Amino acid sequence: MFGLDKHQMYIASVVATYWFVSINMVYLNKVLMSNKDISIPAPLFVTWFQCVVTAIICWVAGKTGERFRQSAYQQVHQEDGGIAEEAKPSFWAQFPVAEYKIGVGRRVFPLSFVFVGMITFNNLCLKWVEVSFYNVARSLTIVFNVFLSNALLGSSTSSKTMLCLGLVILGFFMGSQGESNFSIYGTVAGIFSSLFVSLNSIYTKKILPAVDNDHWRLTFYNNINACILFLPMILVFEHQALAAAVNQQFLSGIFWSAMSVAGFFGFSIGIVTVLQIKATSPLTHNISGTAKAAVQSMMAFYIWGNEATLMGVLGIFTVLGGSLLYTFVKMSESKANSTPRVAEQKTDVEMQKPNNKRVV
């Protein structure tokens, strides 16, 4: 089909799936954050529900994975004591049994505080800014990555990297200046979201040993802890909005369907991100993500009717260009300074395998 072999078709399907899940997750969350006819003015509750859905899916995936592992074990060990030919691992085998242990949960809590800040400010940013401006509002992530890597991990920064950061910062201010419906609240939320994304990457590396370096086990613990942390904030800040929705949105099948699908997308983005990295490479994944962000912003002008200005569009592409150039610079520096294996360990947090993120 289209002159592609099976491997190329697989790569194309994985990249297409990543784009589909990522773009639709942003668009659906925008609806849930700002559409009064479908959703409710309670972003903390909406985010909490997505954490609940993710935790449930992790539990179901863990049970399914356990069943597949047991089945594979029985197939390998034959009745006569012989060893059968090793079977190809099931997709579900990657998911560990989701069991919450209080001691481990306490060790994960510092990361969970950061995780809650990350997804809360991300959704608040999406609530207050136009979808077309969303990527610009959250564009300072790599800037925080570099400075936090220097401050906390003792990393050094090259002049080429600083040039890339300068382009991103320039694009941020250009996009802010050119945004027709500029929101100071949304922009500040985007800046805090970027900060927490960077902190999440750093703390994930520190907390992973507590869960046997299993990213899916960490996802389960993090979302359970987040469900707990969100509850007091919901009761304090959103009890009136929830009470008003009891006889309206809470009885709407559309509302709960949108909430459930958004939660499913939040879980799925982790899977498709890993699949894309495995099918291509970290560099190609970052290039794909940059291209996806450009398409997502351009589509938003049409789908959401956002007003486009020359300065705003230039800001978007300056941010994306700086981010893409940063990716090439980091990969080039890694190859020049160390072997591939060491490079993978030393590259700063922006180039690490995405862990436990629902922010795209």
From TrEMBL:
The keyword Transmembrane helix applies. It is a multi-pass membrane protein. InterPro entries: Sugar_P_trans_dom, TPT_transporter. Residues 339-360 are annotated as: Disordered. GO terms for cellular component: membrane. Coiled coil: none annotated. It is found in: Membrane. It comes from the Eukaryota. The chain crosses the membrane at residues 9-28, 40-61, 108-129, 160-176, 182-203, 224-242, 254-275, 310-329. This is Sugar phosphate transporter domain-containing protein. It comes from Phaeodactylum tricornutum (strain CCAP 1055/1).
